[in-house]
Amino acid sequence: xxxxxxxxxxxxxQMKASVxxxxxxxxxxxxxxxxxxxxxxxxxxxxxSREAIESLLARRRWGEWTQVACxxxxxxxxxxxxxxxxxxxxxxxxRQLDNDRVDYREIxxxxxxxxxVVLARLCPxxxxxPGTNVLGAEIPAQPGAPAVIxxxxxxxxxxxxxxxxxxxxxxxxxxxPGGAVHVEHTLIVPGDVDYSSGNIxxxxxxxxxxxxxxxxxxxxxxxxxxxxxxxxxxxxxxxDVLVKGGFEGTGRGLIRAGGAVHLKFVENQAxxxxxxxxxxxxxxxxxxxxxxxxxxxxxxxxxxGGCLKxxxxxxxxxxxxxxxxxxxxxxxxxxxxxxxxxxxRGTLEHLGTETTNLERSLSLLGALDHSQVRGAPQRxxxxxxxxxxxxxxxxxxxxxxxxxxxxxxxxxxxxxxKVVAQRRIYPGVRVIIAGIRLVxxxxxxxxxxxxxxxxxxxxxxxxxxPVPSVPVAEASA
Length: 477
Description:
By secondary structure, the protein is of the alpha/beta class. Helix 3 runs antiparallel to helix 4 (376-412). The protein folds into four domains: 6-70, no CATH class; 81-183, no CATH class; 190-336 and 415-476, no CATH class; 339-412. The strands form six sheets. The protein has a 24-stranded mixed β-sheet that branches. Strands 4-8-13-12 form a four-stranded antiparallel β-sheet, with no helix packed on it. The termini are far apart.
């Protein structure tokens, strides 16, 4: 008895192939191998799904086009990157001791490098993994984009390939916001800044091994590190400022930094920073203004009086005291959603679907090996291509999943738009978040405050994130 005829259609992209069985009441339905043979006769040699063909024959939907083969899209290459041989985002933290004490002798803001050492090396992009269409033709992969090392002051490339950056002088290394790597000469003051040294004005980094006495000024084009105390003096730096001995006086002192400020404590003085302000112990009647975050989460971590303003958030161990000392905390920015987290979740879902499809294709190839002798070399090539593709996808999924988890963990402990009292907040503390004001009426334990609409909501704080609690006061616009 004659067989029903088989029609084959390949998509314009050549990534899909479909078949239709023409109705013929007098004809016998074809076998699976006959459909496969017809596909191969029409040039379709890759990604054929035996499962789809069997389903088509079982359903007996004659004259209906059904996809029975699918190609594999190419996997783009990864972009190149720069390997730094120094910490480009140095974030000094004090070493925690017993009894709420911290040791500022263990940290430093300046990374000193020697002349001719390698600072950064360029790592090339990968080529990607090519795909294959249903006709068996290879689809080239889009290679990754190359990275660039930017040479700054006192640095040079080792050769014309511009893949290795070296220092031309001995000094302090840093990476600028634009990515350029600079090495600056460092000024070291062996003792105090006083009448023996005069005022300091230096274009690079400054290390002061003693104190900065009242009435003197230190200006630096880079970072400033003071190993003693700062009295009623003025320190201005375009980079970070570290004061290991604290900042105290009668209110005539000022520290102004273009980066972060790290201090042991502040008493009666003013600090302005475009970056975060981090204190190891207490802020007593201090005036702090940060374009980022304010942290008092080590040592005693108490805020007693004064006015603390931060653009993004604040975390302290204790806010206020039982004596109702007026204390003001102001945050200018609300909590925001993270679009990168949503993007990564979508990417992982897409990669999971691709992985499932590849595993199914490999399984189908294995089934064909057991049922057919013809085409074994071609199927082996297909298996190798699919295996490489699957390995690359799994590696990418692992990297993306790790990045997502890191972002979620950071989000859970992120201070953006929040005021956190890790131990206690006392009555008399005034909290302002994005223009909404709240005055604390009663003492509370571990508390996190954030804006919700026209209110400030207080919840219980813990290291893993806030959980609902009772508001501490009424808020007003």
